[in-house]
Amino acid sequence: MTGKAYHGRCASKRRWFYGLKVQVVATSDGLPVEFYIHAGAESEQTGRRGLLLDLPAGSVLYTDAGYTDYLAEDLFNEASGSQQQTARRKDSKRPHHPAQRLLIQYFRKSIETCFSQLTARFPKQIHAVTAAGFALKIALFIFAHTLDQVGL
């Protein structure tokens, strides 16, 4: 995968890369329930919009600061009957109360653990001839991780 569409930035590692990004929605127990694969140049908000998010009413979706989009949060909260809780940056226009910030941080750790367990299953290099074949292999790794988490 080459070209501008696949040239993205990983903020947590402070590195540029060529490839795909994977957005994962997981339960509080770390079980992946939904994912979306998109080109590396697309932002997290674009990937978030690609998720179907068929969540039970009253669910809480915890996201990191890369998903800060106040309008999208408000629309999601109104339309779904669920709530999106996004970690805020220090200079945020809508800062959270300390107790809310602690709760978000607590649940984000379980999501980050899920993602690190998931990526540990990936080999260092994934060989695929096409982008669709590569995405299929990623989907199968996520599926295998989910089966392992439920004990099958």
Spatial strand arrangement across the major sheet = 1-2
Span between termini:
34 Å
Give start-end ranges of low-pLDDT stretches: none
Structural classification: alpha+beta
Largest sheet: 2 strands, antiparallel
> Into which percentage range does the β-strand content fall?
15-25%
Strand and helix order = EEEEHEHEHH
Mean pLDDT: 90
Round the Cα radius of gyration to an integer and report it.
16 Å
Helix content: 40-55%
Shape: globular
- How many helix segments? 4
Number of strands: 6
Outline the secondary-structure elements:
Elements lengths: L6 E4 L4 E4 L1 E7 L5 E8 L4 H7 L9 E4 L6 H11 L2 E4 L11 H23 L10 H20 L2
Parallel strand pairs: 5-6
Antiparallel strand pairs: 1-2, 3-4
